[in-house]
Amino acid sequence: MSLTIGERLKLWRKYLGLNQEEFSTLTGLHIGVIRKYEHQINVPGGEALVAIGQTGVNLNWLLLGQGEMCANKTPPEDADAYLRRIEAVRGLLDGLEVERRSAVLEEIFSRVQEAKRVADLEELVRTMAKKIA
Fold first, then answer.
1. Would you tell me how many other CB atoms lie within 10 Å of the CB of residue 48?
2. Would the N or C end of the chain have less CB density within 10 A of its end CB?
3. In sequence order, what are the residues at sequence separation of 6 or more whose Cβ sits closer than 8 angstroms to the Cβ of residue 68?
4. How many of the other CB atoms lie within 10 Å of CB of 68?
5. Which spans in 65-97 are helix H?
6. How far apart are CA 68 and CA 37, in angstroms?
7. C-alpha to C-alpha distance for 17 and 96, rounded to whole angstroms
8. In this structure, what are the phi and psi dihedrals at residue 85, rounded to the nearest 5 degrees?
9. What would the pLDDT profile of 90-122 be if each residue is shown by its tens digit?
10. 5-64 belongs to CATH 3.30.70.270
11. What is the domain partition of the chain in residue ranges?
């Protein structure tokens, strides 16, 4: 039996280590909307999918259950060092009070989102330049 979109969304949220309220804040979607998606009352539309996709989920996996859960399947050049660094950040965050941790996480996420947007745009420009040449 395959999972529903709502079940996959909940699995993704838990993979990120977020509760529904935190995921709502991260995506900018109302918490009630998140709950309806996870309980299969509603299915995310286009704008919601864009917001959810920005969290790093593979939308093909989310919608169809196909492919990897994470959108970026390319491991970092030094995966062990990368994971150690992420774990170190997590340890630092665990040492903060809840409100400060939430603020720092929002800032980190915002910066990573912006870096990803820039990288995507740079890749698009390179692709277009190759087609023109």
1. 19
2. N
3. 58, 61
4. 11
5. 79-94
6. 20
7. 16
8. -65, -45
9. 888 888 999 999 999 889 888 888 888 888 788
10. no
11. 5-64, 79-132
